[in-house]
Amino acid sequence: MKGSVSFCCFLSLLLLQATAEEEDIISVLRDRSHIDETFRLAAEEKAADYAAAIQRLRKIYHTSIKPMEQAYKYNELRQHEISDGEITSKPMVLFLGPWSVGKSSMINYLLGLNDSPYQLYTGAEPTTSEFTVIMHGEKIRSVEGIVMAADSSRSFSPLEKFGQNFLEKLIGIEMPHKLLERVTFVDTPGIIENRKQQERGYPFNDVCQWFIDRADLIFVVFDPTKLDVGLELEMLFRQLKGRESQIRIILNKADNLATQDLMRVYGALFWSLAPLINVTEPPRVYVSSFWPYDYAPDTSRELFKREEISLLEDLNQVIENRMENKIAFIRQHGIRVRIHGLLVDRYVQTFKEKMSFFSDPELVFKEIVDDPDKFYIFKSILAKTNVSKFDLPNRDAYRDFFGINPITNFKPLSGQCSYMGGCLLEKIEKAITNELPALLSSINSGKQPGLSSCEATGCGEKPKNRYRKN
């Protein structure tokens, strides 16, 4: 009897201690109200206007850009096919960095998932072994990678090319969250320098490149104890070349250090990254501690709070400008497709000019593709069209391109016109110079985008062919 009483007393003490510890944790939880205020989650969005703009953008792409893209097989040159899912997708925020630096904890904090059944697992050891996509859904559920890749309405169907081993390491989490209505987060496996690429079972760097190419904002997270740069991190920064404007460096867990030590770590971080980021203006660095608990005592809490708010405003700017960024992306894509079409047309014309009755077609074209400068392929494009020399693709890429696509498979631009469809070049130039800028102006002015007068009524004008001789 006495033993039973003692055991009950012991259990009661444990419960009291656990309750007291829980109250202590709750008392040191950080206030999250500034997150909702910065993202204005309580405000209602103009969903109808956004949907109308997306539909208009899709129409411009499918009618004016994609026809030339398909006619001259642009996707085989750039390996980047734009799907409807990518056009309609929300901005993507990608988290990269070494293992156990706080990437998953940061996502939990931003979404308020701590102590919920669907919080991302965190720990001092490497915990995230999958690419985890956190996105909006009507109810909380997980989605397998093979399902995400098979769903054409999503923007992840191209990931099938990385194989089944990777799809088993891809997982989606859907939840009804106001912030996820406007943005999608992607958590990645931590970089482990002593692990070889082959041990992952899939092309890790290629998968990272796919997400990097589609990310609107890239957070590269470090903590004060993991500043060393190895081969895998060096390769990652090589993949980030050209995306410096999207990169934000985060020095996380900063409240673990005294102010003087923090200054030394900040300098060491720049020293380590300087050889990897070869740009005039380095990426913005945020120094704070991104998790739900209060800052450690006797640290620069006011500085950390201001840094956190600056990062939230930076993220909110990407969310607010998502439609403008998407229009600019499609326009930039259209410019590349146009340049590609002009170059293929020039190769075709040069080939026809150099061919004679006794010529060997393979030898003639080999001479052209091996030394395009001899035949002024690229210089003629610069001289006759409004193209910047900095936008021209690599000459060697066309040797590989025509290696699998014979020149005889392509028509010149003068033959790419039809009475009903118009001319491919004129349509893509109209989209680049008129339609997409007009859509952007309508977004900025708050005017709901609609159909142009010709699209609404049908102008009935026969398209002009600038390449056909009169």
Description:
The chain is α/β, with parallel strands linked by helices. Among the domains are: 89-299, P-loop containing nucleotide triphosphate hydrolases (Rossmann fold, 3-Layer(aba) Sandwich); 333-446, no CATH class. The chain is built from 19 helices and ten strands. It has helices at 2-27, 33-39, 47-71, 75-78, 84-88, 103-111, 145-150, 164-167, 197-200, 204-214, 231-239, 259-273, 301-320, 322-354, 361-370, 377-384, 395-404, 424-445, 453-457; strands at 92-96, 131-136, 141-144, 170-175, 184-187, 217-222, 247-251, 284-287, 417-418, 422-423. The strands form two sheets. It has an eight-stranded mixed sheet with strand order 3-4-2-5-1-6-7-8, with helices on both faces. The protein has a two-stranded antiparallel sheet with strand order 9-10. It comes from Seriola lalandi dorsalis. Pfam families: Dynamin_N, EHD_N. It is a peripheral membrane protein. It is found in: Sarcoplasmic reticulum lumen; Sarcoplasmic reticulum membrane. Keywords: Glycoprotein, GTP-binding, Membrane, Nucleotide-binding, Sarcoplasmic reticulum, Signal.
